[in-house]
């Protein structure tokens, strides 16, 4: 689903340049890497870049049962996903179809269940950067049906997204925190998407939720988002069993909690060495209602 030739090191260096500390999927269709013309999605609230927010149940049901008129192969990525197009009139125009059944590809485990778990955990944490994903069965084969995001493109250091630096810093902080928590070993330029306003969207989590209990190989943010961390710190095994138990093994859930505890130690160490004001981003300012 993504071009995995971009290394984490290169991406992280580029992100670091774009998001200095504040003291302050890929669905890609016949169009290269989802770089379609910017257009609003069928669902969503006007002005909200995460168009599924507040409409999750409706979109999830449509992804499960909506009529698909045809499929097209997605010409990038080693997992060979397809793009399915829905009949007009529903809350989604198309979806990425990933029928990955715990397959080892290029030495890495791929699973459609991880795609679903990443979405459900993102929603539980009120991260909202991962589009809706559900299990669907097509011609007797189960897989992940992923809401296709229109109007976005992959991260490209040569054409940095526009928007306030503080907003970009907070989003990249949240992304890196989420990737540490779920052991996402495959964040790269192809599955880090953004729109013209600089809002970030996260896709392609089929390699996440490994059983590794530590943070080795998982890049930390320069600063941590305090609101997201408070929700991560409050996670319990009972919470995760309820939200993710259908999709992850007990070993995967235990490993997630161990990584969360390792993140706690990482943060405590950084506070001791650098101070709380540098370790955490400032609280997010309240949203300003648009002038009517």
Explain what the structure shows.
There is one protein chain. Strands 1-2-3-7-6 form a five-stranded antiparallel sheet, sandwiched between helices. A three-stranded antiparallel sheet has the order 8-9-10, covered by helices on one side. It has helices at 8-18, 56-65, 112-124, 165-182, 226-233, 237-244, 250-274, 276-279, and strands at 68-73, 82-86, 94-98, 103-105, 108-110, 133-138, 141-147, 153-154, 192-194, 200-202. With 292 residues, the chain is of the alpha+beta class. α6 (237-244) crosses α7.
Provide a short characterization of the protein structure:
By secondary structure, the protein is α+β, with helices and mostly antiparallel strands. Helices cover 33% and strands 15% of the residues.
Write the layout of secondary structure elements.
Blueprint: H1 8-18, H2 56-65, E1 68-73, E2 82-86, E3 94-98, E4 103-105, E5 108-110, H3 112-124, E6 133-138, E7 141-147, E8 153-154, H4 165-182, E9 192-194, E10 200-202, H5 226-233, H6 237-244, H7 250-274, H8 276-279
Antiparallel strand pairs: 1-2, 2-3, 3-7, 4-5, 6-7, 8-9, 9-10
Helix pairs in contact: 6-7
């Amino acid at each position: 689903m993504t071009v995995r030739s971009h290394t984490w090191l290169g991406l992280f260096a580029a992100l670091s340049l774009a998001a200095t500390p504040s003291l302050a999927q890929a669905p890609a269709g016949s169009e290269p890497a989802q770089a379609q013309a910017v257009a609003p999605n069928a669902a969503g609230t006007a002005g909200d870049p995460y168009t599924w927010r507040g409409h999750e149940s409706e979109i999830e049901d449509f992804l499960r049962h909506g009529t698909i008129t045809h499929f097209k192969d997605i010409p990038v990525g080693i997992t060979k996903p397809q793009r399915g197009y829905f009949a007009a009139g529903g809350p989604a125009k198309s979806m990425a179809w990933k029928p990955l059944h715990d397959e080892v590809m290029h030495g890495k485990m791929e699973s459609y269940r991880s795609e679903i778990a990443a979405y459900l955990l993102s929603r539980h944490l009120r991260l909202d950067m991962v589009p809706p994903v559900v299990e669907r069965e097509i011609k007797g084969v189960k897989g992940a049906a992923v809401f296709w995001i229109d109007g976005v493109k992959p991260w490209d250091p040569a054409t940095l997204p526009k928007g306030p630096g503080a907003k970009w810093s907070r989003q990249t902080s949240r992304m890196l925190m989420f990737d540490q928590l779920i052991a996402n070993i495959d964040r790269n330029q192809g599955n880090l998407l953004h729109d013209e306003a600089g809002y970030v969207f996260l896709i392609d989590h089929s390699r996440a939720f490994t059983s590794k209990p530590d943070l080795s190989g998982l890049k930390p943010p320069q600063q941590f988002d305090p609101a997201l961390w408070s929700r991560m710190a409050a996670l319990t095994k009972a919470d995760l069993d309820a939200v993710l138990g259908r999709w992850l093994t007990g070993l995967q859930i235990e490993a997630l909690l161990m990584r969360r505890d390792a993140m706690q130690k990482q943060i405590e160490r950084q506070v001791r060495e650098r101070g709380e004001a540098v370790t955490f981003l400032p609280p997010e300012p309240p949203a300003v209602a648009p002038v009517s």
